[in-house]
Amino acid sequence: MTIKVLVADDQSMVRAGFRMLLAQEPDIEVVGEASNGLEAIDKATRLGPSVILMDIRMPELDGLEATRRILALDDPPRILVLTTFDLDEYVYEALQAGASGFVLKDDPPEQLLAAIRTVASGEALLSPSVTKRVIREFTRIRRPTSPEGLDELTEREREVLALIADGRSNAEIADALFISETTVKTHVTHVLQKLDLRDRVQAVVLAYRSGLVEAD
Amino acid sequence: MTIKVLVADDQSMVRAGFRMLLAQEPDIEVVGEASNGLEAIDKATRLGPSVILMDIRMPELDGLEATRRILALDDPPRILVLTTFDLDEYVYEALQAGASGFVLKDDPPEQLLAAIRTVASGEALLSPSVTKRVIREFTRIRRPTSPEGLDELTEREREVLALIADGRSNAEIADALFISETTVKTHVTHVLQKLDLRDRVQAVVLAYRSGLVEAD
DNA sequence: TCCGAGCTCCTACTCAGGTACGAGGCGGCG
DNA sequence: CGCCGCCTCGTACCTGAGTAGGAGCTCGGA
């Protein structure tokens, strides 16, 4: 069973390059090309490829929107997104659009071939540098902020935290509690250390997320 | 510069297998083995490997905790987590613990070798099936925060505000949006001016109170 | 075609926030 | 009594945040 591939890129040189590269592989067949998003959708329906190599930046309709629409079809092909830069905001959008993979145009050819076979088999694959970014983002988000240390706080420290969560400056907190700003700083430092936070901004976030303060 | 590898797995057959496999490669040298987590930590400090192949299920101390402790060292090695099953909740924990990659024991050897070289170079790499899971989780969580209100703000400014409300620094926001820190500062200043706020702390408070972000 | 809005980026500056370290007073508890 | 946790305050220092002011880009509307 050969893998039928559709190449969607607005630069003909790029399309030609892929066609040549893929022609070497006995298990891969390029069934068509598209130079913009609309054409990609059209050919996706008519040619029935199993994998689409999709550039993001294209005229008429960009690769992201084309991806969304193609994946809305019955029995859609897998989409492998191509891009020139790895530092590209579109990575996230592409993944959310449902792309099965993301490779850079200057990744080594073997990697591209491996990626095509991988997504054709239903798995997903990202370029290493992209993977790194996704993991960083993933672990950053998926850290359940535990109210763990909240009960470690002393009465005074909780008081200070509540005022921080109200958006007040150290001077204002000092004023409210009738203590010096220095003392406030001391309390703040202790709160941050106990809760393992970096700055008061994160303290506010934690205060709301932990329910220590109500949104309303 | 050869890549120094430490193999940590409680099954000696597995260790022997890796040793044989890696012995074939001129650029990779196995500098030691460990059969449990504590031993892994010890040898990580004494042998100074650049990559550790770490099994998760090990006696004494499991691979996750060992990973956390090793990454707390000065100039720690990269950790490539090994597992038998891809359907493993440990994937998330491993990534959160700071592992640079995740491969299955029955992945093809070339893939393991590629993974070792990739993580040694500072990038990250996951097995395709693992990548698939991570992407699914990633896209599920990372919903764009809904607008509603704050109409004064431009799209970009709202985006920046949402990230501020997540507790991120300007540098982190720049990183997430692929723009310079300078530009982030510009956006922040505009947000504060438009909303008549003093600093980002008040912006967070407003974001939660206005329901722009959910507490949960 | 010109104009403005929006996004991007820069330098240079000020200041609040945070850390490190030290220190004194208070009250409870073994 | 002596120790210890808590609260208080200070000085010194460093960095991130925010402001000011200017500039170039693209795109869509007048």
Description:
Chain A has 216 residues and is of the alpha/beta class. Chain A is 50% helix and 14% strand. Chain A is built from 10 helices and 6 strands; from the N terminus they run βαβαβαβαβαβααααα. A 6-stranded parallel beta sheet of chain A has the order 2-1-3-4-5-6, sandwiched between helices. In chain A, α2 packs parallel to α3, α3 packs parallel to α4 and α8 packs across α9. The longest helix of chain A is centred in the last third of the chain and has 15 residues. The termini of chain A are far apart. The mean pLDDT of chain A is 84. The first copy, chain A, binds a DNA duplex (30 and 30 nucleotides) through α7 and α9.
How is the secondary structure organized here?
Two copies of one chain form a homodimer.
Chain A: E1 3-8, H1 12-23, E2 28-34, H2 37-47, E3 51-55, H3 63-71, E4 78-83, H4 90-97, E5 101-104, H5 109-120, E6 125-126, H6 128-141, H7 155-164, H8 170-177, H9 181-195, H10 200-209
Parallel strand pairs in A: 1-2, 1-3, 3-4, 4-5, 5-6
Chain A binds a DNA duplex (30 and 30 nucleotides) through residues 154-157, 169-171, 179-180, 182-183, 185-189, 192, 198-200.
